[in-house]
Amino acid sequence: MSRSGSPLLSVQNIWKSYGHLLVLQHVSFDVAEGEKVFFIGPSGSGKSTLLRCLNRLETIQRGRILVDGTDIYDRTCDICRLRMNMGMVFQSFNLFTHLSVLDNLIFSPVRLRGMARSDAIAMADALLERTGLADKKNAFPEELSGGQKQRVAILRALAMKPRIMLFDEPTSALDPEMTGEVLSLMTELAREGMTMAVVTHEMHFAREAADRILFMDRGEILEQGRPYDIFEHPEHPRLRQFLRKMER
Fold it and tell me: What is the pLDDT of residue 175?
């Protein structure tokens, strides 16, 4: 639970469309502080759009999204401050290509949080050391492997000390070896109690790291539950069909 005693994130009957194309419909769920909630489902089911709605990168037409009790679509909501507490990691790395790894990590803490540059550098050094990237601090993104770029992207989000992390299929552009590097870091974050909302196609990772899994199709949440129940005793026919295809 959040400091106010309510869920850290509460999504209440949201709907989203692009013109006549309905992308999300009556989607509702809560995320408690420290909880790891994973979203699975076929491509085009609305998972990534949902994640982007959570920090108002996309606009919903109906419903409410509350972060620590604040309606993020209320006119009084400071969306910039909200996003500082909600890290997001995309499918593509979105690093600043003209900045070194170190400068990518310290840019937002210094510019947005007002952290002293020396303190930001010390924090960045600790993050890089922790993930085996200390020797890359002065490298530029073009000099990194895909797995290294994505780990830097995660560290850049962590440098803002967010209360919740959003991951939008962070391994979809990586080969199997690089995928393992990123999943290891995410697993470590999960074990440390980071609140996480994760869109993924990595079923084994979802089974091992999630507290709760939500299955989506055609913009709806069709089933949710603990990983064991979702994978071993799926109830909805569409979920059973999806899991059979993923096993092939």
Answer: 82
